[in-house]
Amino acid sequence: MAGEEGKAVRPEAAADADVEALREAVLAAPEAVLADEAMVQALLRAHEGVAGSRQVVDLRGALVDRLENRLGRLEETHRSVVAAAYDNLAVTESIHRAALAVLEPDDLDGVLHVLSRVLPPILGVDLVRVGVEREGAGDPPQPPLTALGVGGVARYMGADEDGPFRPVVLRATGPDCARLYGPEGVQMGSEALVRLEISGDAAPGLLAFGARDAARFTPDQAGDLLEFLGAVVARALRPWIQS
Length: 243
Known about the structure:
By secondary structure, the protein is an alpha+beta fold. It is 53% helix and 12% strand.
């Protein structure tokens, strides 16, 4: 019995071992402590019984710093979300203004004037062109109309014969942009292209927005609103544009 009593672990020694194990666990993952609200509150309450303890003061300071950093990230996220919402609202409003302007004229000259002169400042672009597919020679299209050969819309938009149909393409301008925009095309840095379905009997058309700013149109942007505007333009041109 005496030998067994000698081997028994004293309660004090067991408590010391538990404290040491806890200490090692906290030192191994201190962020886990600060991330646990209940643990932090329990540690801060210990300040009442350890007044003046430097360790508790340091813990409180670490918690405050952590909360300030989290608040700063939340504020930055909030500002980004609000800014994005305002940008989306401004773009939507511009597209709606452009659509109403396109639908107002009652003749082709009026529609073409709106496309070439009214839409650029509304949408913040430098050029607007409408590509139409034509066969053979004939009277040159009236600006901003631009003649494209048969299949020219798909070729300019970079569509593959077996690839998916893309109604909207946002990209940097390529070396052949001058055949759509004319001599001014060399100044364009990016473009938005919208396929126009004029009617079931007519060849497809192409609504193009050119911008000097290379970052104005990029592939990661959404094209839903431009697709809507393209449908409005196609409707406005339908009475006068035939295959």
